[in-house]
Specification:
By secondary structure, the chain is of the alpha/beta class. 28% of the residues lie in helices and 20% in strands. The chain has 12 helices and 18 strands. Strands 1, 10, 11, 12, 13, 14, 15, 16, 17 and 18 form a 10-stranded mixed beta sheet that branches. A hairpin with a 5-residue loop joins strand 17 and strand 18. Helix 7 packs across helix 8, helix 8 packs parallel to helix 9 and helix 10 packs parallel to helix 11. The relative contact order is 0.15. The N terminus is likely disordered.
């Protein structure tokens, strides 16, 4: 039986020799029941994109899967965001295979999509846990029965910390971790544990940061002081160390990679200096990092051998945006965007495919070189660049298929309009549909409460509910 930190067995009760989890494992009964309820949950006329369809009768994810209506001509209102089933499946399977080959655990960050149906796919593929950025996100996960949550952030509200301890008390099968980067934060977590008395300690990772970063101790010495306080606290358990490398940026991409590697090396050094198990205890210390841009560097650095006979840590990746990938930020910064010199026997770089597409209608071609399209900042992200035109579905007579959106460019977005530059006046006409790629999924999912899932023939085979 795999041991967790401080000698606790895996609450799922599974042997886990590879560290990633149990691919194909059954979901917990509570989660299965909650997902069944979501499958039968009516989609309302107020859910964007479904207005006409839902007004005509009860629409559910299960019903869509059974009926498989066409995305085009099936009653959906434009604009509508869709997920490509084939890309979703490829991304989940590719990351699961990568983590298994690399010998690391995966706790995908659920904040990208906040979609229990997608979380279920990741857990069924072998994910060890689900990461949350806030207690509100953790509460969504728990409402759907997620059995292990890594709150990858500081919890500094007393009520929130007591809720977390209360979940431990209420459910012996629930496992959770959180962060601390200050003595005050440690004291707050310990006070919450003392107030609730969950019957087992709250597991805490000391967070290491870097100058200008979002959180985390600014030096290894400071992190060791926080770790010692965690280790001494009666209601807490020091489970390891964590950090976040995704915010590191240099003007030169190679300099960025070097800085990410240096930060991960510091995190590895911190882990080697943390207090070891107490007498009679055995556990594998956790080291956690890994956004969706540099997880290959994280794996390489955190899994590097330790000097002497020090036990290897349990490396936990938190990459989450890979599930949908994109046509912008992660496409340009992820491992697939750069040559990766894989060492013999190392895990091959996974291949991800963009899964999110926004379909919108051409409203006007008011002047040469410009088309106005029915999608804007309320529908799609633009914090990492404007969406990318992919293909056009003409509305006029003739062949109803696609043609490439060659030479088209989204110049800017208003709240409800996209300004698309077109090389020739005949490229677009009012009523045409245009498919747009996403440049940053993390600020796109939150604009949609229900997202149709489509197959390669543009039939709707499911619908994903989000909970932001």
């Amino acid at each position: 039986m795999t041991s967790g930190p401080r000698g606790e067995s895996d609450p799922a009760g599974r042997s886990d020799p590879g560290g990633q989890g149990d691919p194909g494992a059954a979901l917990p009964p509570r989660m299965t029941a909650a997902l069944a309820g979501l499958r039968d949950r009516p989609i309302a006329p107020t859910d964007k994109g479904f207005g006409r369809l839902a007004a005509g009768g009860t629409i559910t994810a299960g019903g869509l899967a059974a009926e498989r209506p066409g995305l085009f001509g099936g009653g959906f209102d434009m604009p509508v965001m869709v997920l490509r089933e084939a890309a979703l499946r490829q991304n989940v399977e590719s990351m699961a295979a990568y983590c298994a080959a690399a010998g690391v655990r995966h706790a995908p960050h659920g904040k990208t999509a906040m979609a229990p149906q997608l979380i279920a796919r990741q857990l069924a593929a072998g994910a060890w846990a689900v990461s949350a950025a806030t207690i509100a996100q953790a509460q969504v996960y728990r409402a759907f029965g997620v059995p292990r949550v890594l709150v990858a952030n500081q919890v500094t509200e007393r009520g929130a910390a007591e809720w977390l301890a209360g979940e431990l008390a209420a459910d012996p099968g629930f496992d959770c971790y959180t962060y601390a980067d200050s003595l005050a934060g440690v004291a707050l977590l310990d006070a919450a544990a003392a107030a609730v008395r969950p019957g087992r300690p709250l597991k805490v990772l000391v967070e290491l940061g870097y100058p200008g970063g979002r959180a985390g101790c600014r030096s290894i010495a400071d992190a060791l002081a926080v770790a010692e306080a965690i280790d001494a606290a009666a209601g807490l358990e020091l489970a390891g160390a964590a950090g976040y490398e995704g915010g590191i940026h240099r003007d030169d991409p190679q300099a960025t990679l070097a800085a990410v590697a240096a930060f991960c090396a510091d995190l590895r050094t911190l882990g080697a200096l943390l207090p070891g198990p107490r007498a009679g205890e055995s556990f594998r210390q956790i080291l956690s990092a890994g956004g969706s841009s540099y997880f290959d560097v994280v794996c390489r650095e955190l899994s590097a051998p330790r000097p002497g006979s020090a036990p290897a840590p349990e490396v936990v990746l938190r990459s989450g945006a890979y599930i949908s990938h994109d046509h912008g930020h992660y496409a340009a910064t992820g491992p697939g965007s750069r040559p990766v010199a894989a060492a013999p026997g190392s895990a091959p770089v996974p291949e991800f495919a963009p899964a999110l597409e926004l379909w919108a209608a051409v409203l006007s071609v008011p002047e040469p070189g410009l088309a106005i399209v029915s999608a804007g900042r309320h529908d799609v992200s633009n914090d990492q660049g404007n969406p990318v035109p992919l293909r056009i579905r003409p509305s006029g007579p003739g062949e109803p298929g696609y043609r490439a959106a060659a030479g088209l460019r989204v110049a800017r977005l208003d709240d409800q309009h996209a300004y698309v530059r077109i090389p020739h006046p005949s490229d677009l006409a009012p009523g045409d549909l245009i498919g747009l790629g996403i440049t940053h999924p993390c600020t796109t999912f939150d604009k949609w409460r229900v997202i149709p899932v489509v197959d390669e023939a543009d039939r709707v085979v499911d619908a994903v509910h989000t909970f932001f």
